[in-house]
Amino acid sequence: MMQKVGRKYVAKFNFMHARTGTLWEGRYKATLVDTDEYLLACQRYVELNPVRACIVATPAEYRWSSHRANAYGCQDRLVTPHCAFAAMAGAVDRYEAYRRLFDLPLPSDIIERIREATQFEWALGDQRFRARVASLTARRPEKMPMGRPRLRR
Questions:
Q1: What is the pLDDT of residues 118-138, one digit of tens each?
Q2: Where are the domains of the chain?
Q3: Among 45, 63, 130, 132, fewest CB within 10 Å belongs to which?
């Protein structure tokens, strides 16, 4: 479905702007996310991307970010709050709690796990969750060890 939508959109966009070629590099990638903790880490990861790329100093400065809606309650018809966000606290306190998540940097190991899970389309969660996903989908949930398996004697 995403491929079909992408093809139609790119063709129309290219026609309207008198251009050729692709708009996006690579293919669409997605990953399953286990808990609310991982979901909020993913939101922080996405909203901090423009900061890591040195485009802006804070996530709220980036025009295309959902950060203003999530952290300050600004209306954005493209943003639908996740139930994990809604459960953080009462209406006013929720925005303050969300902003406090950004006071500390996202740990580098979490950034790496999010990047690997997205790149290789692995499940993002604890070992039990990844094993469950593997059993239901018949797909590897994580990276295999390097090298050949040892011979059994």
A1: 888 888 988 898 888 889 988
A2: 27-137
A3: 63
